Amino acid sequence: MIGFIVGFTPIAVAGAFALWTRVDRRPEIINLLDASPTSKRHKRSKGFDAVVLHQTGFSRGNDPTRYRKVTAHFVILPDGKIIQLHPLSAKLWAADGFNNRSVSIEFAGNFKAATGKWWSPDKYGADEPTPAQIQAGRALLRMLKSIGIRHVFAHRQSSAKRGNDPGPQIWASVGEWAIRSLELDNGGPNYAIGGGSPIPDQWRRPTP
Ligand SMILES: [Zn+2]
């Protein structure tokens, strides 16, 4: 079941455009909408204009069905597969104060902090984002920009409890890339809401 983003009709127009431009960059998306709990879906009071990047904090490998209960619109697996769990029209309790305006993307893995240390590696593993995951993340952001996304945020920016979400590696390689290459806005150096924290300088450097 491979398809374009579900729940957003103008994608057909964008898709036709992509056919003669850069179809090679359009990622395949595995549709798990029917396998995900609909109870997680709420009504947005306005349209979305932002993406929030996350890390799951665990890995269950590359079987898409093992992630179907994750609260996010998309999950990107270690092998680069992109799964869609909820329609973009749904507001999810995924990113605190950004929920109403955002689409959430989770990268599967327990990724280290800027200190070089992992959270409870004995229990949750010690993962590194894979090149396939990073490429898939970039391709997905490129596509979301084509349907109106203008901002990219880290969950850290809206949550006091998620200081390492998505962590320096995902942020530097996907978030900063999107600011540079897609010209997405991040709110500026000190931007945070609702008890969250700004992006630290160490996150803005390229992945070591
Ligand atoms: Zn998060």
TrEMBL record:
Q: GO molecular-function annotation terms?
A: N-acetylmuramoyl-L-alanine amidase activity
Q: Return the InterPro entries for the record.
A: Amidase/PGRP_sf (IPR036505), Amidase_domain (IPR002502)
Instruction: Tell me the Gene Ontology biological-process terms attached to this UniProt entry.
Output: peptidoglycan catabolic process
Chain ranges of the N-acetylmuramoyl-L-alanine amidase domain:
36-167
Q: Which SUPFAM superfamilies match?
A: N-acetylmuramoyl-L-alanine amidase-like
Q: Pfam families given for it?
A: Amidase_2
Q: What is this protein called?
A: N-acetylmuramoyl-L-alanine amidase, family 2
